[in-house]
């Protein structure tokens, strides 16, 4: 994901205004903490690493969540975050070692690291942040490791042990920026295409008849979390997301991955947020308006005929907001 660089020509008044808006948002993120993002009351489901992988799927589905922090009760330590990527790894394991299907049934969450090793993927760096550190720091850490969510870990004063306070996502942070910074986001008036926000070429797509397994393989190969589903004219029909895998393999039904994406999308929960589109001429301020009002996880850029032009993920937006025009990438 390349960092967009500012144009070499002298900045126009629009450029200056945009840069002022971005800098003000960065200042805001430096004086807010991850605690500020948390709602007054929230629920946190932590899963024990002794739990069977198969059962973890049911728990996520029953509680309408797509990830959970893991807890090793043998050592009383935080053991990473369970996400859709872990299930994608399990699917890859199943494909590489089909004879081990019966073993897969008995795998526990503690086996996830062994599965990573067996299929040869490098383990995701488990980043975490103290909830009282600046939000800017949490975001920089997320962008550096490509994490879409970050656990907030504190230490219990009495026992001296780690405790998981909550998990914040890119979505929550972007919403927090949008809700609290309307006076700054209105300054972001340049069209998304002009600032190079998102990905506009080599887009990975599928059609309704593509199998779920093929789509998963495309996601793994390109390290992406969504694949737009298009018709033969390139018009966008839907988007298959990494989290759509979870209901597909409920109960350990790995052999059903040969079903089509069209069938898999019917298994989406009823409260699924749907897809959000924008045009190449839309400005970042209108995208922030959408984020403020809706549950947006990415925007699919389409032309007037609904044909796919690009993809703007939340990480693209956050990367732009944090890093555009920054000379020193490491500060
Ligand atoms: P995400 O996986 O959504 O966080 O996106 C990671 C990066 O991949 C971002 O720069 C996206 O713009 C890009 N991206 C996401 N989905 C696709 C896709 N289907 N084809 C090509 N690039 C993508």
From TrEMBL:
Name used for this protein in its record: CBS-domain-containing protein
Keywords on record: CBS domain, Repeat
Keyword Repeat assigned: yes
InterPro entries with a match to the protein in the record: AMPK_gamma/SDS23_families, CBS_dom, CBS_dom_sf
Pfam families named in the record: CBS
Family assignment from sequence similarity: Belongs to the 5'-AMP-activated protein kinase gamma subunit family.
Domain spans labelled CBS: 121-185, 199-256, 271-330
């Amino acid at each position: 994901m390349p960092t967009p660089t500012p144009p070499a020509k002298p900045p126009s008044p629009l450029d200056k205004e945009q840069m002022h808006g971005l800098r003000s948002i960065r200042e805001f993120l430096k004086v807010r903490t991850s605690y500020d993002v948390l709602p007054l009351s929230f629920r946190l489901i932590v899963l024990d690493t002794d739990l069977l992988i198969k059962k973890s799927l049911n728990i996520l589905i029953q509680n309408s969540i797509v990830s959970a922090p893991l807890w090793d009760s043998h050592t009383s330590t935080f053991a990473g975050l369970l996400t859709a990527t872990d299930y994608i790894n399990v699917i890859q394991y199943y494909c590489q070692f089909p004879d081990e299907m019966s073993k897969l049934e008995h795998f526990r969450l503690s086996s996830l690291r062994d599965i990573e090793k067996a299929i040869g993927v490098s383990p995701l760096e488990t980043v975490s942040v103290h909830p009282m550190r600046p939000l800017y720091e949490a975001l920089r850490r997320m962008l550096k490791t490509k994490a879409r969510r970050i656990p907030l870990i504190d230490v219990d004063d009495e026992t001296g042990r780690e405790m998981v306070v909550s998990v914040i996502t890119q979505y929550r942070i972007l919403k927090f920026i949008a809700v609290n910074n309307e006076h700054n986001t209105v300054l972001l008036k340049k069209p998304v295409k002009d600032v190079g926000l998102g990905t506009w070429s080599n887009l990975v797509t599928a059609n309704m008849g593509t199998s779920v397994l093929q789509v998963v393989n495309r996601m793994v190969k390109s390290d992406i979390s969504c694949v737009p589903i298009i018709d033969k004219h390139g018009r966008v029909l839907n988007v298959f997301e990494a989290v759509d895998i979870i209901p597909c393999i409920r109960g350990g039904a790995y052999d059903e991955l040969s079903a089509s994406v069209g069938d898999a999308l019917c298994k989406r929960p009823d409260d699924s947020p749907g897809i959000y589109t924008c045009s190449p001429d839309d400005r970042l301020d209108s995208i922030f308006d959408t984020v403020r009002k809706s549950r947006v996880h990415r925007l699919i850029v389409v032309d007037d005929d609904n044909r796919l032009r690009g993809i703007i993920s939340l990480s693209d937006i956050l990367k732009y907001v944090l890093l555009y025009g920054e000379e020193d990438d490491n500060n």
